[in-house]
Each structure stands twice: as structure tokens, then as C-alpha cells.
Amino acid sequence: MIADANKTELPDDQRIVITGIGLTAPNGNSLSEFRESLLNGKSGVQDYEIRYFGKTFAGVCDFDERKHQTRKDRRRGTRAASAGIYCANEAVIDSGIDWENTDKSRVGIYVGVTEHGNVETENEVFEIKGFDYDTQYWSHHHNPRTVANNPAGEVALNMGIIGPHYTIGAACAAGNAGMIQGAQMLRLHECDLAIAGGVSESIHTFGIFAGFNSQGALARNGDPEKASCPFDVNRQGIVVAEGGCLYTLERFSDAKSRGANIIGELAGYAMNTDATDFVLPNPDRQAACVRLALGKAGISADQIDIVSTHATGTESGDIQECAGLRQVFGDCESTYINNTKSFIGHSMGAAGAIELAGNLSSFKDGVVHATINVDEVDPLCQLPGLVVNEPREVGKVDYILNNSFGMLGINSVVIIKKI
């Protein structure tokens, strides 16, 4: 991959930057806490039991739902939206923007989700069974809880935002997709501030555990903290996790004019589709998505310092992604590769956004966090620059590339540049 020599620098009002981060992950409820866990090898996976399925593992968050939300609103709303409300408010605080005097009609909310509504539907079917399926006991909150725009809509209600809001259904590529949508809307001047990323409440639905288990793709045995082990020859499969990460995105011109602390610039991004299988990834299409993002950023593969992988701990998924990465980064001696799901499990629609956040601190500290729980790398997952078990000090980090892929062959890639 050769950098585009003809690529011209974008004007400041077309450059999109990150100015705030709000997150909740199974091992941290702020970027600093999350980063500390990643550098110290602290897992957020624990024993878990869910109705109809039984004992398993999960990445469980413990953020304060009442910090930015009333008890009444939480009771009538959803867990995914509660995570979104927490993350959105924390991101705005982190951005330092004058929220009280911000024109809320110029704020957009773009939240990626894998699925939404399953938790509420399962719970309500279970509860109505106890009343002999008498529909007078069906919750009148069901419809607003289960509409697809719920997580973004609840954020809008909570924060008084009257600009555009919607969710982006993009399977497990959704965290990146939310950021990409936010960037595009800013470039079109449809909003002046985008709250964008992804959320997930997946651990609260037994169906997702049963579904992965029926595919032979669910990790269920051994020590929960070691259950998520992408790239390891003895990996078992996916550990389901919940979580959320939302960013404040702004045009560089606006961020610069208000003296914002700029965390990084969205230098390139891409989305494409495999169109080859319901669940089996296509390494050629994943590699094509990476190359497309590099082309949009106007850089070559060897300029990427960190590749944050999607790898979920399934045998075929890890191998396919590594094959795709090998096509692009096989000769890149100074590109380091890591994985965050080994710490927290797979947070589905939030995964891409959370995993990117875990790497952004590398711009400041020059450290690449490891992939933990790797006793023996699968020979088919061997990659140059793979960082396992211990963080690696690399000194300087200028570009981070974040992979995030999902079922039905949806691929997303985001590249963040240090400013």
C-alpha cells in the first residue's frame, strides 16, 4: 500500500477530531481507569448466570446508573440506553464544552448497536407467563423500550438534545459505524457536535448466549478471567460482554477555536461487505476494507503504529482476520498488533468504540497494551508485531487503526491520527 501522493490536506472544517470520551467497560468506568486495567492485565470477565441458560461467563459493567439519570427514568428505560446516557454525559464533561450554552439543535447523536429490544421482550414474555399470558399485564413501556432508536433517543431525552438522533445497526461493526456516521454528518454540516460510538446490553438476553453456544462459539469452561483468549491455540470462543463508549466529535475548526483538548483526528475510515457468508469472515474483504481506510487517510500500511484487532476468540474468526491482516501488514516491521477483548470479552455493538478508546492513550504514553491470556499463539494467528501478555513500550505512536467486523459480513475500519 502506497500513500496517496496526490492527497491534499483537508480544510479545517472537514477535519474531524475527538474532543471527549465517556465509557463504561467491564474493567473500568472512565478512560483512565480502563487504561490502567489494560496496562496492568486486569480482566473484567466474571462468572455469570442467566435465566434459561445457566452458568457461563460475561463481561459485566458496574457504572453508576443514577449519576446522570433518575430512578424513574431508569425504571422505564433500558440498560443499553442507561449505558448510553452515562457515556454521553461523561463524554461531554470530558470535552470541556460549554454545554449549558450549546445550541442543542446542532447536536447529533449516532449510536451503534448490534441488536436492541431482545432483553425487554424476553423479560416481558417471562413475566406475562406468570399471569397466564393476560396482556393487561404487558408493560406499556414495551414499544418505546424496543424501538431501534431507543438508546440514542433516551440520550436525547436525558440531555435535552433536539438535533438528529438515531442508532446504526451494524452488528459488531457498530461502534466504528457510529463514529463514521457522526463524522459524515459533521462534514455535511448537519450538526456542529456529534455524540457518537456504540453501546451494548447483550449480557441481559439469554438468546445471545444460547445462540453462540449452539454454534459452538461460546467460552464456558475454566477460569473466567482467562476465558477470553483470542489468538491462543486453545481458545474456546466468545465471552459476551456489555458496555458503552461514546465520543464527542467536532470539526477541527470549531475545536481549535474554542481551545479544546484534542485527543486525536479521524484520519480515515471505511466500511464494506463480504457478501459471502452469514457468519464466516472473508479475509480478502477485510483486507480490502483496511486498504480503503488507508487510502482515505493518505498513508501507507507501514505508517500504522497500532492495529487494534477485532478477534473474538473463535477459531475461524481469529484465523480469518489474521489472514487479512497478513495481506496488508505482513511486511510492516514497526506495526504492533493487540486485542482488547482478551480483557473484557466481546461487547458487541460497543466493541469497536471501547477497543479504540483503550488504545488512544498510546498517543501520550507510547505504550501498546498487550493481548492477555495467550499461552501459545496459534500458528495460523502468528503476526509480526503481535503484543502478548505484557505491554510494550514503543516510544512514539502517531496512527492507530481499529478493526471492527460483524455478522452478515459487515466490516468497518477507523484510523485515528495524533495531532
Globular, elongated, flat, extended or rod-shaped: what is the shape? Answer: globular
How large is the radius of gyration?
Answer: 20 Å
CATH overall fold name of the largest domain: Peroxisomal Thiolase, Chain A, domain 1
Q: Which architecture of the largest domain per CATH? A: 3-Layer(aba) Sandwich
Main sheet strand line-up: 5-4-6-7-1-8-14-13-9-10
The helix-and-strand class reads alpha/beta
CATH level-4 homologous superfamily of the largest domain:
Thiolase/Chalcone synthase
Sheet having the most strands: 10 strands, mixed
First-to-last CA distance: 23 Å
The portion of residues forming beta strands comes to 15-25%
Reading off the top of the CATH hierarchy, the class of the largest domain is best stated as Alpha Beta
Low-confidence sequence ranges? none
- Number of continuous helical runs: 14
Task: State the order of secondary-structure elements, H for helix, E for strand.
Answer: EHEEHHEHHHEHEHEHEHEHEHHHEEEE
**Overall pLDDT, averaged?**
97
Number of domains: 2
